[in-house]
Structure formats: structure tokens, C-alpha cells
Amino acid sequence: MSPRRNRPSGGRQPSRPADGPREYGLEQTDHWRGEEWTVRRITGSAAAKHYRCPGCDQEIPPGVPHVVAWPSLGTVEERRHWHGPCWNARDRRGARVLRSRNAPRY
Q: What segments bear the compositional bias annotation Basic and acidic residues (predicted)?
């Protein structure tokens, strides 16, 4: 039995699609609505606060892995915390329902 190889033979790196996301360390850039967005995946152990997902308007509790996205030319105030599936389905979702802070959750 020969030892296991961790890399594919041939020595070539897999190529990424030209229109796919570009990765920079823990962050990657993605294009959405004609803008370049910076996207960072947050692990469950790093998620320490409650956030509200703009995709589904539901709460993201502490300890749940999620996505933080903001326009690449934007400011810190423009960061939004999304559920991973909500971020992936952002183009297929309709307009979200805006509600006041004291409105019921149903």
C-alpha cells in the first residue's frame, strides 16, 4: 500500500472561474447589484452578539455561523450580518418586510 497523497498529481492549482468570487485570506469579494462587496464568513465560536438578518428579517443568535457583507468602498456602518443561505439566495428573494422595533414577530 502506498502512502496517501494530499495533492492531486500534476502539480497544477485548480483554476477559479473568471466571474467567481475572489478570495483574500478570510475575506472574499463578490459582485451584487452592480457593486463589489466584501464578504467574510464568521464561525459559530466567533459569533458573540445578536444580529438581524436583512434577507429574512430573523434574528441571528450568538453561536450561529453567518456571513458579514459590506460594499467594498463602504464604511463600517454599512456592514450587514446575513444567514449563509439568505446571502446565497439574495437574488431570488423578494423585498423584505420592514417593521418597527416594537412590532410583533409573527
A: 19-30
Domain ranges of the chain: 22-88
pLDDT of residue 25: 47
Q: Is the pLDDT of residue 24 over 50?
A: no
Q: Would strands 59-60 and 27-32 be described as parallel, antiparallel, or unpaired? A: unpaired
Take residue 102 and report the three cell numbers written for it: 416594537
Q: How far is CA 94 from the centre of its chain?
A: 18
In the structure grid, which three cell numbers stand for residue 89, read together? Answer: 439566495
From 42, 24, 25, select the one nearest 79 (Cα to Cα): 42
Give all strands (DSSP E) within 1-106, no chain letters: 22-24, 27-32, 35-42, 51-52, 59-60, 66-71, 80-82
pTM above 0.70, yes or no: no
How many residues appear in the chain?
Answer: 106
